[in-house]
Design goal:
- The protein folds into three domains: 3-7 and 75-243, Glutamine Phosphoribosylpyrophosphate, subunit 1, domain 1 (4-Layer Sandwich), CATH 3.60.20; 255-454, Glucose-6-phosphate isomerase like protein, domain 1 (Rossmann fold, 3-Layer(aba) Sandwich), CATH 3.40.50.10490; 457-616, Glucose-6-phosphate isomerase like protein, domain 1 (Rossmann fold, 3-Layer(aba) Sandwich), CATH 3.40.50.10490.
- By secondary structure, it is of the alpha/beta class.
- Strand 12 (217-221) and strand 13 form a beta hairpin.
- The strands form five sheets. Strands 3-2-4-1-10-9-11-14 form an eight-stranded antiparallel beta sheet, covered by helices on one side.
- The structure holds 2-deoxy-2-amino glucitol-6-phosphate.
- 2-deoxy-2-amino glucitol-6-phosphate binds next to helix 9.
- 2-deoxy-2-amino glucitol-6-phosphate binds at residues 308-312, 356-358, 361, 364, 407-409, 496, 612-613.
C-alpha cells in the first residue's frame, strides 16, 4: 500500500507533492510526510492522519525547494506514529527515502546494520533500506550521482520482498532516484518537470507522457533527462513513453454527506453505463469487444476461474451462479490472496478473470501473473482501465462506473455482477442458450436501472430501521444460492464501516452451528425474495424467531407473510431471480451506511483500511 509522489523541476515542489499525495490517499491514510531539498540540505515534515493535516503543517511552515518526495502511509511495519511516517533517513541524515511495499528480510538486514553501529528511530522496514543505501553511498570513493545509483543497486540487490521507492540525497542535489519491484511506480514528464508516482491519475494533470517502470528498474532523474538502470546491473532500454489520457473527473459529494452515499445512489446510472452498447437485441446476446476473442475462441473455454479480493470476490461468487446457469461452464471463484499459494489447476482452455475495481490490488495482480505463467488465457474485469491488471491482461471488460472514492465498494460491486451476467449471456448464446431466453435476460438486465432507482427510494425507511438496531453488537446475514454472496457482502459492508462484527452464511447453515449465536440482542438479516427457495428461507426465519432473535428481512413487494413474520421488512420490486442479488445488495449497503453514520463513524475513510490494497 502507501502512495508515493516525487517531483523535480523548475518550480517549487511542495504544491505538487501535496496535491498529488491527496490523490493517492486511497492507498492509505495513516500518516503522511514530505522531504524537500532546499539547495543545501533536506528538510522534512510529517504528520499522523490525513494528507490534509500535513498540508496544514506545511501552510504554517512551508518547505522551499524544487526537488522532493512525499508519501501517504498504510502501516505495515510499526505503529501509526510520526517516527514511523515516511520519509525515512539514513545514518547521515542526508538521504531521504519513501517506500511502498514490504521488505521481507528487513530483520536480518537491520541486525546486520545494528552490528555495524547503526541506530534506528523507527520500527519500519523502510528505514533499514535507507540506512543500507546510505552506508553503501558513504563508502564510495566519490559521493556523486553515479555512486548513489550504485548504492541503490547494491542495497536493492540484498532486499527481498516488494518495493516502489523514491529517494534523494543532499550531496547529489537536484536528482531523484526511483526503483520498483512488485509495487507500481511511474515516471511522468511534464512542462519543465519530472514526477514519480504510484499511479498515473495522481499526476495526470501535470504530465503529457509517462513510462511504467518494470520490476528491477532503477530510474535516475535530473529534472531534464533520465536514465533507467537495472538492479541486476547495466543500463536498461527505457520503456517507451505512453501518452497520458485525462483522468476521470473527481466530482464533489453534491447533496450527499458522504461519497459512499452518493455512490450508492449513482447505481442506476453506473448500471446503464456498464451495459451501454453491450446488449445485442438482434442476436439476443452480449458483446464485449474488449475480450478480443472470436466466438470460436470463446467456445474453446471449458472452465472459468474468477479471482479477486473482498467485495470483488463476493461479486465473483454472485457471478459464478450466473455464468454456470446461463452458459453451463464450470466456474470456480478463488480468493486472489490464496491463488498463488494453491496449485490451482490451469490450462490453455481455462480462462482466468482477474477482477479488481482498482486494478492495483497486489494479490490479484499476483494471481494474474501466476495464471499467465501456467499458460491460462488471462482477462481483466476492472473499473480503472489504466491499471496494472488492465495493462497486463490479454483483454477484458471495463466497468465504466467512474471514480469510486468511498473506501467501501458499492457501485462497482453491482457493475461487476452485471458484467458477469452479460458474460454468462454471451458464453451461453454461443453454446446452448436459445435466442428467446437470451432476450429474457436482456429484458431483465435492461429493467435493472429503474428497479434499482425504485429500491433507492427506500433510503429513508432503511435509515429508520437501521436506527432501531444501532446498539446491536453482532449481526448475522443470511441468504441462499447467489444471495449467499450478498449476505457475505452485507456483512462485510457492516464490518468495514461501522466496526460491528457481522458474518454471512447460507441460510441453511444456520442449524449447523450459527444458531448458537441467535439471541434477543443479535439481529439476523435474511435475504428472502419470492424465488425458488422462498419457503426454505421462511423456515429458517421461523427457527430464528423461535429463539427470540430479531429478524430483518429483504423480500419482495407485497409479501405480507414475510411482513407478519419478521420484526422489520424491506420489500423490493419484483425482479427475475437471476438478477435479485443486484437489487438485494442495495438495502444492505444503505443499512450499513446508516448504521455507521448513526454511530459517528468515518464512513468514507474507515480506520485501518485503504481503497486499494497494494501489498500482499
Ligand atoms: C470493499 O468495500 C473493500 N474496500 C475491499 O474488500 C475491496 O473490495 C478489495 O480490497 C478488492 O479491491 P479491488 O476490487 O480494487 O481489487
Amino acid at each position: 500500500m502507501c502512495g508515493i509522489i516525487g517531483c523535480i523541476g523548475e518550480a517549487a515542489a511542495q504544491p505538487f507533492l501535496i496535491e498529488g499525495l491527496g490523490r493517492l490517499e486511497y492507498r492509505g491514510y495513516d500518516s503522511a510526510g514530505v522531504a524537500i531539498w532546499n539547495g543545501k540540505e533536506i528538510e522534512t515534515r510529517k504528520s499522523i492522519g490525513r494528507v490534509s493535516r500535513l498540508a496544514e503543517a506545511l501552510n504554517e511552515s512551508p518547505l522551499d525547494g524544487d526537488t522532493g518526495i512525499s508519501h501517504t502511509r498504510w502501516a505495515t511495519h510499526g505503529a501509526v506514529t510520526e517516527e514511523n511516517a515516511h520519509p525515512h533517513f539514513d545514518a547521515s541524515g542526508r538521504l531521504a527515502l519513501v517506500h511502498n511495499g514490504v521488505l521481507e528480510n528487513h530483520k536480518a538486514l537491520r541486525d546486520g546494520l545494528l552490528g555495524r553501529g547503526h541506530t534506528f528511530v523507527s520500527q519500519t522496514d523502510t528505514e533499514v533500506l535507507a540506512h543500507l543505501i546510505g552506508e553503501a553511498f558513504d563508502c564510495a570513493p566519490v559521493q556523486d550521482r553515479d555512486a548513489l545509483v550504485a548504492a541503490v543497486r547494491y542495497a536493492l540487490g540484498q532486499a527481498m520482498g516488494t518495493y516502489g521507492i523514491g529517494l534523494l540525497h543532499a550531496d547529489t542535489g537536484r536528482f531523484l532516484i526511483a526503483a520498483r519491484k512488485g509495487s507500481p511506480l511511474i515516471v511522468g514528464f511534464g512542462d519543465g518537470r519530472q514526477f514519480l508516482s504510484s499511479d498515473v491519475d495522481a499526476i495526470a494533470d501535470w504530465v503529457d507522457e509517462v513510462i511504467y517502470l518494470e520490476d528491477g528498474d532503477i530510474a535516475a532523474l535530473d529534472g531534464d533527462t533520465y536514465e533507467v538502470h537495472r538492479v541486476s546491473g547495466g543500463e536498461a532500454t527505457p520503456p517507451a513513453p505512453v501518452k497520458v489520457e485525462a483522468p476521470p473527473t473527481r466530482e464533489g459529494r453534491g447533496r450527499y454527506a458522504h461519497y459512499m452515499h452518493k455512490e450508492i445512489h449513482e447505481q442506476p446510472e453506473t448500471l446503464r453505463e456498464v451495459m451501454k452498447g453491450r446488449l445485442d437485441h438482434e442476436g439476443g446476446t452480449a458483446v464485449f469487444s474488449g475480450l478480443q476473442r472470436t466466438n470460436e475462441e470463446l467456445r474453446e473455454w471449458h472452465r472459468i476461474v474468477l479471482t479477486g479480493c473482498g467485495t470483488t470476490y463476493h461479486a465473483a461468487l454472485a457471478g459464478e451462479s450466473l455464468i454456470e446457469a446461463l452458459a453451463r461452464i464450470p466456474v470456480e471463484c478463488e480468493y486472489a490472496s490464496e491463488f498463488r499459494y494453491r496449485n490451482v489447476p490451469l490450462d490453455s482452455r481455462t480462462a482466468v478473470f482477474a477482477m479488481s475495481q482498482s486494478g492495483e490490488t497486489a494479490d490479484t495482480i499476483a494471481a494474474l501473473r501466476e495464471s499467465k505463467r501456467k499458460g491460462a488465457p488471462t482477462l481483466g474485469i476492472c473499473n480503472n482501465v489504466i491499471s496494472t491488471i488492465a495493462r497486463e491482461s490479454e483483454g477484458g471488460v471495463g466497468l465504466r462506473a467512474g471514480l469510486e472514492i468511498g473506501v467501501a465498494a458499492t457501485k462497482t460491486f453491482t457493475s461487476q455482477v452485471v458484467a458477469l451476467a452479460m458474460l454468462g449471456l454471451l458464453l451461453g448464446r454461443i453454446r446452448d442458450l436459445p435466442h428467446c431466453e437470451g432476450m429474457d435476460i436482456i429484458r431483465g438486465l435492461e429493467s435493472l436501472p429503474e428497479l434499482v432507482a425504485q429500491t433507492l427510494e427506500l433510503d429513508e425507511e432503511i435509515s429508520r430501521i437501521a436506527a432501531k438496531y444501532i446498539s446491536a453488537r453482532n449481526f448475522l446475514f443470511m441468504g441462499r444460492q447467489a444471495n449467499f454472496s450478498i449476505a457475505l457482502e452485507g456483512a462485510l459492508k457492516m464490518k468495514e464501516i461501522s466496526y460491528i462484527p457481522a458474518s454471512g452464511y447460507p441460510s441453511a447453515e444456520l442449524k449447523h452451528g450459527v444458531i448458537a449465536l441467535v439471541n434477543e440482542e443479535t439481529p439476523s438479516i435474511f435475504l428472502a425474495p419470492q424465488d425458488g427457495v422462498y419457503e426454505k428461507n421462511l423456515s429458517n426465519i421461523e427457527e430464528v424467531k423461535a429463539r427470540k432473535g430479531p429478524v430483518i428481512a429483504v423480500g419482495t413487494e407485497g409479501d405480507e407473510t414475510l411482513a407478519s413474520l419478521c420484526d422489520d421488512v424491506i420489500l423490493l420490486p419484483q425482479v427475475p431471480d437471476f438478477l435479485a442479488p443486484v437489487l438485494n445488495v442495495i438495502p444492505l449497503q444503505l443499512f450499513a451506511y446508516h448504521t455507521a453514520v448513526a454511530l459517528g463513524c468515518d464512513v468514507d475513510k474507515p480506520k485501518n483500511l485503504a481503497k486499494s490494497v497494494t501489498v500482499e
